[in-house]
Amino acid sequence: MGLLDAVGRGLSAAGYGAGEMFAKGALIDTQNEAETQRQLRLAEFKATEAQRMLAAKAAQQQAILGGSAPAGGLMMTEGENGETGAISVDQKRIAQLSKEFKIPEAAIRHDLAYNGGKGISKMLYESGKPNVQIHGGVAHDMKNLEPGVVPSVSTSTTGQTTAIERGPDGKPRVVVPEGAAAAAALYKGIEAGSKSASTLTKVYNPETGREEWKTEAEVINASRPGAAAAPAGGRPAGPEAALRTQMTGGMGGDPAAAKREIEQSRASLVNVKDEGSRQLLTAHIADMERQLANMGAGPGAPAAAPRAGGPLAAGPSAAEKSAQDARAASEKTNAEQIAKDVAEQRKTIIMADAQAPGMIARYQQIGKLLANVDGGVLTPGGVRLASAMNSVGIKIDKNLADKEAAAALGNELALQLRNPSGGAGMPGAMSDADRNFLASMTPNIAQSAAGRKQLIDARIAIEERNRQVATFVRRYEKKYGRLDNDFFEQLSSWSQSTPLFGSK
Amino acid sequence: MLTNPLLQRALEGVEQGVTSRETHDKVVRAGMKAIYAESTFQKLTAALDRGGDIVDQAAKAAILIMAGLQEKSRGTLQPPDMITGGMALMLDILDFLDSAGTIQVDNATLEQATKTYLNELLPKFGLTPQKMDEVLGSVQETLSNPERMAQYQQSLKGGSDGAA
User: How far apart are CA A421 and CA A411, in angstroms?
Assistant: First the structure.
């Protein structure tokens, strides 16, 4: 047995000859030596195991990379950082891998040299994984994209879809994708129909003499007896055939739009290749031509006339407008006159208020003079009385004797008071009862001293009322900004409930 | 001193059962010297590689070492010392492999190695499982038979009297 021989040699090398092992008793100090040997072998064993693992890994990589190992098998070299792991691989195989998986040769070499080839599997994974990106509505695997024209699809804001593809000469070529022209025409027709059904226009109605609101579709369809009105809201719905019919019916009111649509569709037909789209587009053109003929917009057709009647007036007729203008002018004049009257009345009130204290004082003075005259103590009262009366606007002859002057004064006062429109009191300042009271005063009230005193008191009361009215004016203006008829209505109402002479 | 605590405890158990510690130590040191001598070690590692389960191979390697020692001892190495010494060497080899990271020794590993060791070693001394059963059966019979037990005890007494 080889191992037994080896054990024997090991024992001999360790100093144990045959028969000496125990007899000799020479096992002294072998413990440390054995331990040392054990540690040495352990270190060697670990190193060998590590190398075995690396070799196994390298063999695995070799199996992946293929090719034959260089002479001497896998060559373990030392990397930049001292790590072991660089593997020498068939150079042709590296070039082959690079080409096959589109991985740069330098990347593979670098990974083998400095990374022990650990990154190659990741490179292979990344290489095999598609890099899909969307450009111009078309998904491309960027790894397989060849230089040159990149196919794309785009749709304009007007709904026209076009595609760019690589032509036979390698140059870009613009084509109409299958179904694009028909779809664009369909959507455009729907849009036109919707627009004409929802766009209002003014139409003159000779029956009413007014301009009236109509949808464009209504106006156009009115020229076609029996033509169906556009669907409510101008938004047709349903399958394609129904859509086409509704669309042409909705837009069919506009011959110019229909003609444009036909021209565009014919132009699109040139570029459409697939049979399905051609048929759809051809049918659409036929529809449009039929609609155009129904509109009466074909050659020699009479111009469409707006249909009479309709409830939506866009504005008044000429007569209505004239009447309205007249009313407006009258109202304006009236308003101006009212404003002017109110302004004048306000002015009168304010002036009366300003004068009232002085007037009251003078009437009081006149009252005293009259009392003196009536008491026989006024000499020469005629002159002074006449002067006092002049100060309140009553003209009497200063040459009159006192009693005669007093009688004349009384007459004049009575005359004024009995006629409020002559200036005694503001509009609305007195109640009907007040006016009736003043008007009922007898002409000879001025002939007695008591009558004259009553006249003076009435006059003073009116001046006091003028002051009250002015106070009301200021309050009203503070609250409402300016005077108006409402003020005078309120004043009148107040006066009715607060008579000047009601209790007299 | 083994680095694996489990193996160290097992070794302590083995050492408690030895009849002569001095002899045991000599056997173990000689075995270790043989194992870790450069020429032997390479053969041993090659044998470990070629074999099947490395734990079983470690047990068998310890037996081979003990066989070599017995041959060198010219019959002076007695079976009890061989058994315990070989067991100690087996534990040392397992600890070596555990330290190198080749295996991880746990209770199951130790049980497997011990079982392999005994199954491989005992037949070399003529102790087959059947023979072991016969011996155990004979002991059992003696223990359960008062007459034979008395004879056995008498023989022990007579032996010890004679020795004295």
Answer: 17
The DSSP letter of residue A179 is T
**How far is the C-alpha of B99 from the C-alpha of B3, rounded, in Å?**
7
Contact B62, B87 (CB under 8 A): yes
Task: Write the DSSP string, A381-419.
Answer: HHHHHHHHHHHTT----TTS-HHHHHHHHHHHHHHHHH-
Report the complex ipTM.
0.75
- Tokens 């009297």 map to which residue? B161
Residues of A in contact with B61 (CB under 8 A): 3
Q: Tell the residue number behind the tokens 């090719």, with chain if given.
A: A67
Q: Which of A1, A11, A49 to mutate to probe the B interface, most B CBs <10 Å? A: A11
Residue pair A184/A159 in contact by the 8 Å Cβ criterion: yes
In chain A, which residues have their Cβ closer than 8 Å to the Cβ of B71? 4, 8
- CB-based contact A157:A141 (threshold 8 Å): no
Beta sheet of A152-155, edge-to-edge order: A152-155, A161-166, A172-175
Q: How many CB pairs under 8 A join A and B?
A: 115
Cα–Cα distance for residue pair A400/B164, rounded to 1 Å: 197
Cβ separation B33–A21 shorter than 8 A? no
DSSP state of A425: S
Tokens (6 digits) for A362: 């003078």
SS3 A331: helix
Contact call for B33 and A14, based on CB within 8 A: yes
Q: Two tokens at A190?
A: 């729907």
Beta strands A210-215 and A200-205, pairing class: antiparallel
Q: How confident is the model at residue A239 (pLDDT cuts 50, 70, 90)?
A: very low
Segment A442-501, tens digit of pLDDT: 666 766 777 778 888 888 888 888 888 899 999 999 999 888 888 888 888 888 888 887
How many helices and strands in chain B, by DSSP H and E? 8, 0
Taking an 8 Å cut-off on Cβ atoms, the answer to whether B37 and A10 are in contact is yes
Alpha-carbon distance of A229 to B119, in angstroms, equals 108
Question: With contact defined as beta carbons under 8 Å apart, do A202 and A216 qualify?
Answer: no
Chain B residues 21-80 within an 8 A CB cutoff of chain A:
23, 25-26, 29-30, 32-45, 47, 61, 64-65, 67-69, 71-74, 76-77
**The residue count for chain B:** 164
Residue A421, pLDDT score: 54
- Check the CA dihedral B74-B77-B78-B83 and report its sign: negative
State whether B76 and A40 contact (CB < 8 Å). Answer: no
CA-angle at A193, arms to A191 and A199, nearest 5°: 95
Q: What span, in angstroms and rounded, lies between the C-alpha atoms of A430 and A418?
A: 13
Among the partner-chain residues B30, B39, B77, the one whose CB lies closest to the CB of A6 is B39
Q: Which of B30, B92, B100 sits opposite A11 (nearest CB)?
A: B30
CB contact under 8 A, A13 and B25: no
**Nearest CB to B40 within list A9, A33, A34:** A9
Checking if the pLDDT of B156 tops 80, the result is: no
For residue A208, the model assigns a pLDDT of 76
- Report pTM: 0.34
Across the interface, of A2, A7, A27, the residue whose CB is closest to B34 is A7
